[in-house]
């Protein structure tokens, strides 16, 4: 296995993901994890992540220096390399020219981490400091125009790269990481999603023991996968609760109940709580307030149901890594309060089980297939916890919800008919709070504007608007205005993320 020591870098999870993609088990630990904790795991290799600090600043995060004496292969990335250099007696200073973005790397030593690669490589840089002098015993392995020591090594087990091999903008990054993991560290690559599932089942059993757990089942891929993993671990000691908060899409509730109760034989309680939610949302227009209320109410409904079931200590949630990071970690600022993380009230009585917390969406899909979930669920597009409430802009009312449901069903149907549903990360309708004037059958209308949102994305963290065929857009628009009373105009959202987000609220 491999450990990523996290120095607060933006890409720590991405490094872990690349390691997992090489079929190697990977764990992320904070930079100040004690040595014996690290050694206990018998890592085959350690990767130091990047980080926002400067090694010479006062509170710069440092690791235990003895780690360099263990002989374990270490790859330092960006800050990780500078730290290695600094701690071993080299010098790091602010660079004359900071380097951000694409850079041309010239390889000087072609074996080791650059084994089998060309001499000139495109890499992705993001740093303000540079190495000025190398520690004793180190050599320069590659340079760029502005960075004379862009990759370094001691000829044995210690390596550093100033650029980011883990991002897609470093096209040969995967090979560089794999050279380190397989070539230098001798990893074997036998880990798989199957091992992941077994490991999670073991961890859940260990934690829950004979206790009982509740699972928030929404029918989306995340909570479905979390529920099935937990069901495998606990059997009937898991009760799933499906809350219909009245903010679901057309026919959604019925389908979820059929699938999990009838097909999977999971202990499922379906609660129709729509009145409760809609009452609390009355008059609320602020997006963050809406999200908070729904998150809170969700947990309250759970608590009420849980009370009826007797003593239950654990709550299972399908939280993914992007949800965690966008709700604000040490390094990332809060962008939206995600329903399953930041929205939890303080007086929560459950302990959380989050088996998918370290995974990206496409990894969860692989786990789902591994678990034998039907493709229909595994490839379902993501749907936010707060549901249609974040797609009905402004106040949420039953009338607006029912308009949106019909429009959204048309978007979904047409996208599927065009065979694009798997290619798109998401495609849905938004009911804007804008009314405009139209003319239908010689009559003036004054009705709502529906926006269509369709995006492509790898992981939901960034996204591009989908270049949908005009004919498809035309079909959707024509059908929506003709079939959905209360709508007389359809627009298409052509913004990427960033600067916009995928959802409108
Ligand atoms: P945004 O709108 O932040 O969305 O660009 C990124 C992805 O996350 C989904 N999303 C959520 N998922 N709870 C969730 O489980 C939420 O509160 C939530 N808000 C947004 C969104 O649909 C997109 O796929």
From TrEMBL:
First-level EC class: ligase
UniProt EC number: 6.3.5.2
Ranges of residues in domain GMPS ATP-PPase: 191-380
Pathway: Purine metabolism; GMP biosynthesis; GMP from XMP (L-Gln route): step 1/1
Gene Ontology terms for molecular function: ATP binding; GMP synthase activity
Entry annotation: catalytic residues: 78 (nucleophile), 164, 166
Entry-linked CDD domains: GATase1_GMP_Synthase, GMP_synthase_C
Catalytic activity: XMP + L-glutamine + ATP + H2O = GMP + L-glutamate + AMP + diphosphate + 2 H(+)
GO annotations of cellular component type: cytosol
Domain of life: Bacteria
Task performed by this protein: Catalyzes the synthesis of GMP from XMP.
HAMAP family documented for this protein: GMP_synthase (MF_00344)
Subunit structure: Homodimer.
Record PANTHER family: GMP SYNTHASE [GLUTAMINE-HYDROLYZING], GMP SYNTHASE-RELATED
Name recorded for this polypeptide: GMP synthase [glutamine-hydrolyzing]
Source organism of the structure: Thermosediminibacter oceani (strain ATCC BAA-1034 / DSM 16646 / JW/IW-1228P)
Taxonomic placement: Bacteria, Bacillati, Bacillota, Clostridia, Thermosediminibacterales
Gene that this polypeptide is encoded by: guaA
């Amino acid at each position: 296995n491999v450990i990523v020591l996290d120095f607060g870098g933006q890409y720590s999870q991405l490094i872990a993901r690349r390691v997992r993609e090489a079929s190697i088990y990977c764990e992320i630990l904070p930079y100040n994890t004690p040595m014996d904790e690290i050694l206990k795991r018998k890592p085959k290799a350690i990767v130091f992540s990047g980080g926002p600090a400067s090694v010479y600043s006062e509170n710069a995060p440092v690791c235990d220096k003895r780690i360099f004496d263990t002989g374990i292969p270490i790859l330092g990335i960006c800050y990780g390399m500078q730290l290695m250099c600094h701690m071993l007696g080299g010098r790091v200073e602010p660079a004359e020219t900071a380097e951000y973005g694409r850079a041309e790397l010239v390889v000087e030593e072609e074996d080791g981490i650059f084994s089998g690669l060309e001499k000139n490589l495109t890499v992705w840089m993001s740093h303000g400091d540079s190495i000025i002098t190398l520690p004793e015993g180190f050599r320069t392995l590659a340079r760029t125009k502005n960075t004379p020591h862009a990759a370094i090594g001691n000829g044995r087990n210690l390596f550093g790269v100033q650029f980011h091999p883990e991002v897609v903008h470093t096209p040969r990054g995967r090979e560089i990481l794999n050279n380190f993991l397989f070539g230098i560290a001798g990893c074997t690559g036998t880990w798989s999603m199957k091992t992941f599932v077994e490991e999670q089942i073991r961890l859940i059993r260990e934690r829950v023991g004979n206790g009982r757990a509740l699972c928030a089942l929404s029918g989306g891929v995340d909570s479905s996968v979390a529920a099935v993993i937990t069901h495998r671990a606990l059997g009937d000691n898991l009760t799933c609760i499906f809350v219909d908060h009245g903010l679901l899409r057309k026919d959604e509730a019925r389908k979820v109940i059929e699938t999990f109760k009838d097909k999977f034989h999971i202990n499922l309680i379906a609660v129709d709580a729509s009145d409760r939610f809609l009452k609390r949302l009355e008059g609320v227009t602020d997006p963050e307030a809406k999200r908070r209320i729904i998150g809170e109410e969700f947990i309250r409904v759970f608590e009420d149901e849980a009370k009826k079931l007797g003593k239950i200590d654990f709550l299972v949630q399908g939280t993914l890594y992007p949800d965690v990071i966008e709700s604000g970690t040490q390094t990332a600022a809060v962008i939206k309060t995600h329903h399953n993380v930041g929205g939890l009230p303080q007086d929560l009585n459950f302990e959380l089980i989050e088996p998918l917390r370290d995974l990206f969406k496409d990894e969860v899909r692989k786990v789902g297939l591994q678990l034998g979930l039907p493709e229909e669920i595994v490839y379902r597009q993501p749907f936010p916890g707060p549901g249609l409430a974040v797609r009905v802009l402004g106040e949420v009312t039953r009338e607006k919800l029912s308009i949106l449901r019909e429009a959204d069903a048309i978007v979904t149907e047409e996208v599927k008919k065009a065979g694009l549903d798997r290619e798109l990360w998401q495609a849905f309708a938004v009911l804007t709070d804008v009314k405009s004037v139209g003319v239908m059958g010689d009559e003036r209308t004054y009705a709502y504007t529906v926006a269509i949102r369709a995006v492509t994305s790898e992981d939901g963290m960034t996204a591009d608007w989908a270049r949908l065929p005009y004919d498809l857009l035309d079909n959707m628009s024509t059908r929506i205005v003709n079939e959905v009373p209360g709508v007389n105009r359809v627009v298409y959202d052509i913004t990427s993320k960033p600067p916009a987000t995928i959802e409108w609220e």
